[in-house]
Amino acid sequence: MSVIEAHGLRKRFGTAVALDGIDLRVEQGRILGLIGPNGAGKSTAINAILGLIPYEGGLRVLGRDPWAAREELMRDVAFISDVAVLPRWLRVSQALDYVAGVHPRFDRTKAESLLAKTTLGRGSRVRELSKGMVTQLHLALVMAIDARLLVLDEPTLGLDILYRKQFYDALLNDYFDRSRTILLTTHQVEEIQNVLTDFIFINRGRIVLTCSMEQFEARYAEVTVHPERLAAARELKPVHERQVFGRSTLLFDRADRQQLQQFGEVRTPGIADLFVAVMGTTAASQAGGR
Q1: Which of 125, 154, 126 is nearest to 33 (CA)?
Q2: What is the structure's pLDDT at 192?
Q3: 154 vs 35, which has greater pLDDT?
Q4: ∠191-143-159 over CA atoms, to 5°?
Q5: Which residue, 215, 207, 260, 213, is CA-closest to 237?
Q6: In angstroms, how far is the first alpha carbon of the chain from the final one?
Q7: Domain parsing of the chain, residue ranges
Q8: Using one digit for the tens of pLDDT, what is the confidence trace for 210-237?
Q9: Measured between alpha carbons, how far is residue 225 from residues 222, 229, 233, 247, 272 in Å?
Q10: Average pLDDT value over all residues in the chain
Q11: pLDDT surpassing 50 at residue 287
């Protein structure tokens, strides 16, 4: 079942084009990473999906028009952003009381169980908590909501590596059950590679690559080439080349892995390496078209 479906999704802010005719389909039970540089349109796309801004084109989220039916949609959607919106005067216990009072699908027992794994005191105020602790509180509140779609916009921005790992571990172990769908954006691409089922690269308001992790692992390969074999390897038309400790690492798309083995150890690249390659190719093609 399609959880998010967009056709020709567009959004302008004055003369600036934030989304330029996006087509998007996200199936139930997937974890999709929306990856792009600053200003690529990630947050604008999320705001449209959440019904926070009007837009042009077609967009359905859980079968609803998010702009026209936002109140109804929010019963099935939860959201965490990089900016904690909890009031600084609020106590942890009051946050639990508030969400229990406003959201019919909030499971207070589950929230208490999640908080029991942290060092958060029920009487602590938000202003007394570190950013990592605020994120833990926010995560416990949201994960205790029986939502069909969870949207995460840079949820671990500014957190140290320990909190980031705990965040994604909790997401997979305590929340994701293959019936829920998760959409997330992050700049820490390497950390989510083992979390995602699918990813999208977006740049300048356009989708430049859509790929499942199964397709990614089958389609892309990279090899650090022995210097004496570099010219021969280049004849196979790599999509990207970078220098690592004085040696050339070549990235290939749909190349024969057995053929590549003659040049060095063949491995699956990181999503971050593919992102750099695709963004570089996109920028070059756009420059050539001007």
Answers
A1: 154
A2: 87
A3: 35
A4: 40
A5: 260
A6: 41
A7: 2-204, 215-288
A8: 999 999 999 999 999 988 999 999 999 9
A9: 9, 7, 7, 7, 20
A10: 90
A11: no
Query: Which CATH number is 2-204's, of 3.30.559.10, 3.40.50.300, 1.20.1530.20, 2.60.120.10?
Result: 3.40.50.300
Length of the chain: 290
Q: Give SS3 for 198.
A: strand
Cα–Cα distance measured from residue 249 to residue 253, given in angstroms and rounded to the nearest whole number:
14
| CB of 55 closer than 8 Å to CB of 206 | no
A 10 A CB-CB count for 42 gives 23
Show Cβ contacts of residue 212 under 8 Å, excluding neighbours closer than 6 positions. 197, 198
Backbone angles phi, psi at 37, to 5 degrees: -70, 170
Distance from C-alpha of 21 to C-alpha of 26, rounded to nearest angstrom: 16
| Contacts of residue 132, Cβ cutoff 8 Å, sequence gap at least 6 | 159, 160, 163
Half-sphere exposure of 67 (CA within 13 A, CB side): 11
- Tokens read off for 150: 């969870």
Nearest to 1 by CA among 181, 141, 127, 213: 181
Picking from 142, 114, 118, 144, the residue whose alpha carbon sits closest to that of residue 130 is 118
What's the confidence (pLDDT) of residue 257? 94
Residue range 30-47: mean pLDDT, rounded:
93
Predicted local distance difference test score (pLDDT) of residue 249:
95
Reading phi first (left if > 0) and then psi (alpha if -120 to 50, else beta), residue 108 is in alpha
Q: How confident is the model at residue 282 (pLDDT cuts 50, 70, 90)?
A: low
Can you tell me the distance from the alpha carbon of 187 to that of 278, in angstroms, rounded to the nearest whole number?
16
**Mean pLDDT score, 47-66:** 96
